[in-house]
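Weekly structure sync, notes
Attendees: PL, DS, HV (note-taker this week)

Item 1: Gamma-glutamylcyclotransferase
DS walked through the input record. Source organism listed as Probosciger aterrimus. Sequence as pasted into the shared doc:
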Amino acid sequence: VWIFGYGSLVWRPGFEFTSRKVGFIRGYSRRFWQGDTFHRGSEKMPGRVVTLLEDCGACTWGVAYEVRGEQIPASLQYLNMREAVLGGYDTKLVKFHPQEKDAEEPIQALVYIATPQNPSYLGPASEEDIAAQIIVSSGCAGHNIEYLLRLADFMRYFCPQAEDKHLFSIEEALISILPCLCFTEESLEET
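Item 1 (cont.): predicted structure, written out as tokens:
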């Protein structure tokens, strides 16, 4: 079984796997439209994490993990709790295209996608509003800023040829807000 990750799974799968490949799926755009009140946020201050939006002309880059034998039930149980129960994600089968030049045919992979019907779905907002929400959110897996920056780093280093305007626009908005926050914190410490 192959499992495609396009958010925190690209750097922290949390399950054992046999192999991994960087690549993409077609027909979806990555969006910071899913709320998170556990891993990257709280009930009072939900974080924002990514989900996929059907978009026939787009492709989303990430990592596919191959799980075999005893890894299959353990990884699916873990992901069903992490994504489906806590996050409100549905599972779908997609065609994953490995990045390697000599790659074989596309691979069928499972992917978890949050839908607008789940209670944590936040939907669209401006890049500035999303960045402002990310800055103040933190959960049991860490600060929401880390999630955004790690995902941007993954794209920059593993998929430099790919564009993800939504992701990089939010990163830019976050960076433009951060100096203001640092100045405010220093001012508060001095008083």
